[in-house]
Amino acid sequence: MAAVSISPLPFKPMPPPVLTHQSLAKLVSGTLIQGDADSTISGLNSLSEAVAGDVSFLGNPRYAAQIKTTKATAILITQSLTDLPHDKALIRVDNPTLAFSTVIKWFAPPARPLMIGVHPSAIIASSARLDPSKVSVGPHAVIEDEAVIGDGSIIHAGAYIGYAAKLGNDCVIHANAVIKEHCLLGHRVIIHSGAVIGSDGFGYELANGRHQKIEQLGIVQIDDDVEVGSCTSIDRARFGRTHIGSGTKIDNLVQIGHNVVTGKNCILVSQTGISGSTRLGNYVVMGGQVGVAGHLQIADQVTLLAKSGVTKNLAAPGAYTGYPAKPLIEGRKMLTYPGRVPELLERVKELERKLAAINGKTAE
Question: Are 250 and 226 in contact (CB under 8 A)?
Fold first, then answer.
């Protein structure tokens, strides 16, 4: 396919770096409950690092004490907060963390303009299907035969789209990410740099003293609105599909084995590993370094705390922790026992001394 001319998309210039308190409240769909409506802010920061003229937010109750000591001029707070400082402009919002994201976008420098079209150095197979006037393909990207790229998608520099892979509309494939052959991505999927979608599953059989490779001939299907972090690997199925449900968010450095199925809106945090053929329900959350054995069933709305190890099916919603993972209270008790071993040893030694003394008197 011949390269087309490159032209920048129009972009909204950075807005003026000053907001009145009333304008700020309108921007975040909040209510100014305290402070001068016409006073201004000119920056933003965390509660602990803010200075006069900054806006900050209280998104986590553990930092509530900081609203009394922060130097911020304005603070976004929850609807329920009652212990309020009297020298700050206060804006009530439903979700301070999300509202503050809107403020960040307002003050952020303008993004680099998106370039529509195909860069001359990109390699696009003649049978690939895309509309050069509706996509952006960066330098040295490769799109193989029969691949399909949906309108509005962005393929950044050095990314690879394999044979017959299909991307929906408005996907973003970051630099050096890999989408291997036959994999299917829905709409608005984001794949970050270094991630590999569709690598071979880890399948071997020991025969005649050697590990012989089991062919992995299935695909990976990723549904709408999924985001996959950098250097994450999602293996293709041995047969059938590895399936990531819509709305799921996957952190950096996550390993998902062949034929794994996740439900909708799951959260998988960094260094989590899920072995082959395990199935996750909807709204499952896995903290950092969680490990899950293969061929298991995990129910909807299960939350696994960091470093938990799952060796059996988890049939009930709720929080779990420890290795093997147990319901939260039981798991926390198990985690405290090893720390009590030195104390218990001293108690055993004291009992032995007392017993020895009793036995000595009995012998006399």
Answer: yes
User: How far apart are alpha carbons 313 and 128 in whole angstroms?
Assistant: 43
Q: pLDDT digits over 190-246, tens only? A: 999 999 999 999 999 999 999 999 999 999 999 999 999 999 999 999 999 999 999
SS3 (DSSP) at 91? strand
Q: How far apart are CA 353 and CA 361, in angstroms?
A: 13
Question: What's the predicted TM-score (pTM) here?
Answer: 0.84
- Domains contained in the chain, CATH given: 19-107 (3.40.1390.10), 117-334 (2.160.10.10)
Q: Is 21 a catalytic residue?
A: no
Of 182, 243, 258, 295, which one is the catalytic site residue?
258
Q: Measuring CA to CA, which residue among 170, 206, 204 is closest to residue 185?
A: 170
The sign of the torsion formed by the CA atoms of 322, 326, 329, 335 equals negative
| Residues 134-140: contacts with CB under 8 Å, at least 24 apart | 138/175
Chain-centre distance of CA 45, in angstroms? 23
Report pLDDT digits (tens) over 34-91.
999 999 998 999 999 999 999 999 999 889 999 999 999 999 999 988 888 889 999 9
